[in-house]
Design a protein that fits this description.
- The protein has 474 residues and is of the alpha/beta class.
- It has two domains: 200 residues, Maf protein (Alpha-Beta Complex), CATH 3.90.950; 189 residues, Rossmann fold (3-Layer(aba) Sandwich), CATH 3.40.50.
- 38% of the residues lie in helices and 19% in strands.
- It is built from 18 helices and 14 strands.
- The strands form two sheets. It has an eight-stranded mixed beta sheet, with helices on both faces. Strands 2-1-3-4-5-6 form a six-stranded mixed beta sheet, sandwiched between helices.
- Helix 1 packs across helix 2, helix 1 packs across helix 5 and helix 12 runs parallel beside helix 14.
- The chain is globular.
């Protein structure tokens, strides 16, 4: 049954009329826009224990402690606010007097658009809350990027998304996907972008935050999300800010020895570049949304299978809606001006120089390449040899359409496209799709095509359709 969407006033009133919900609101940077809805809805005295806004930095530091980086619109600041305010609820309200109360603390820290409109505005919102007074609290953390061009409008947006968050935590916690969607209730999608969410706590033990990341991209709430080796969702802006970035795109279905050889040798060449600081470098394994939906609908289990293996190898994973490479580079360049690197197979390089991918651009392929190579970008090309009898194909032997050849030669000559100078020729005939087929069909020998221990992970967790009895039968 389709969910009925209530107005912000209706949501706030419904929370206020719940005699078992009681908590605090702490808001920094964009006014007390969220709690304002609850005060105006009526019945707030039964819900709000305290509302505050510590605008002055010294006051804020005195309450929540100092931030090492002297930044206040951060996840760290938000978490300190939530912990501090929730702890006060527990200390000041005797459980014997309030045995049925479900405590909560809502907090946000927001920076709206500046006067020159160069800084667009963003913020962190969070809830620490109980669904059962006898349980430990849950936590929901959200990061938003604000899109309106007036501070007043951005403040209103924060007010509405905050009400949505408070309401969703108490009424949609049993359906995390719906909880996520509901954050846009009564809001035009163009007003804000949600690029990170994390759920934790006793009522979210079965929630995989990586799947929520996938939903952010799938639902068009953001164009790209990142999660780390521990499976926790990361804020792209914080992770990539002023970093050298090295990215490898692939299906990783499953990750093979070729993928590892590509990243190993690409990394070695990249860190030897003059404008690369290996101590300020972020390596990303990127999967496009289009790649995840190769068979039509997105198979969430298939996505988790790939993610589990990459995370077990200690990799950071980027899921993006940037099917074309120039869009991926443009995305990276919003966070950094440092040198970037892309690792491509020869077949992917062919696609980059195929004009049909740029028909939707007024400037065609030249417009796309203006984005690609106006940035500080280097492309490292991994060779191809589909059959052992074939000659090894590199960027030098690649056949490009005569009309594009001068452009291609220009980038080769200027060293923006270079071949891998070291690779393992014995693994060039390994392809993920063939490994996947062998796993599903129960054929022997696929284990040797994968990095050490990856075969054990697949077998132990029965990933990618692996069934032990099939191998035995064969």
């Amino acid at each position: 049954m389709e969910r009925i969407i209530l107005t912000s006033k209706q949501k706030a009133l419904k929370i206020n009329l719940d005699s078992n919900v009681y908590g605090t609101f702490a808001e920094i940077g964009a006014g007390q826009e969220v709690v304002r809805h609850f005060f105006r809805a009526g019945g707030a005295s039964g819900t709000i224990a305290k509302a505050m806004s510590a605008y002055d930095k010294d006051f804020s530091d005195a309450i929540y402690g100092k931030e090492k980086d002297n930044r206040y619109v951060t996840e760290s600041r938000l978490k300190k606010m939530l912990v501090h305010e929730y702890k006060l609820m527990e200390e000041r309200l005797d459980r014997e007097n309030f045995p049925d109360r479900k405590f909560f603390s809502f907090a946000n820290t927001v920076a709206t658009i500046n006067f020159t409109k160069k800084f667009k505005g963003h913020g962190w919102l969070g809830m620490k809350f109980q669904l059962n007074p006898e349980k430990e609290p849950n936590e929901v953390i959200v990061h938003v990027r604000l899109r309106e061009n007036e501070a007043r409008l951005q403040q209103e947006t924060i007010g509405e998304v905050g009400v949505n968050l408070v309401y969703a935590c108490f009424h949609l916690a049993d359906n995390p996907k719906e909880l996520l969607k509901s954050l846009y209730d009564n809001l035009d999608p163009d007003r804000l972008e949600i690029d990170m969410i994390n759920l934790s706590g006793p009522d979210f033990e079965d929630v995989d935050n990586r799947l929520l990341s996938l939903q952010l991209v799938k639902n068009g709430m953001t164009d790209a999300v990142i999660f780390g080796p521990d499976g926790r969702n990361l804020l792209p802006a914080a992770l990539l800010y002023k970093k050298n970035i090295l990215a490898l795109r692939g299906s990783f279905r499953p990750v093979t020895k070729v993928n590892i050889d590509m990243i190993k040798n690409g990394y070695r060449q990249f860190i030897n570049e003059k404008r690369v600081d290996k101590d300020n470098l972020q390596v990303l394994f990127e999967i496009t949304l289009n790649n995840l939906s190769m068979d039509g609908e997105i198979d969430e289990q298939d996505f988790i299978d790939r993610a589990d293996i990459l995370c077990s190898l200690g990799q950071t994973v980027l899921i993006s809606n940037h099917q074309q490479y120039y869009k991926l580079v443009e995305y990276f360049s919003t966070f950094t001006k440092a040198r970037m690197g892309l690792i491509l197979g020869v077949t992917n390089l062919v696609e980059i120089f195929n004009e049909r991918y740029y028909r939707d651009l007024n400037g065609g392929i030249l417009e796309a390449f203006g984005v690609l190579f106006s940035r500080d970008l280097k492309i490292f090309v991994y060779p191809s040899q589909p059959d052992a009898e074939d000659s090894v194909q590199t960027s030098s032997s690649l056949k490009v359409h005569p009309r594009i050849k001068p452009l291609y030669d220009y980038f080769i000559y200027n060293g923006r496209i270079v071949d891998m100078d070291n690779y393992d020729p014995s693994i060039l005939q390994i392809f993920s799709r063939e490994v996947l087929r062998m796993i599903k069909d129960g054929e022997e020998g696929w284990e040797e095509m994968l990095p050490t221990y990856v075969d054990n992970i697949i077998k132990d967790n029965q990933l990618f359709g692996y069934e032990p009895h099939k191998e035995k039968a064969n």
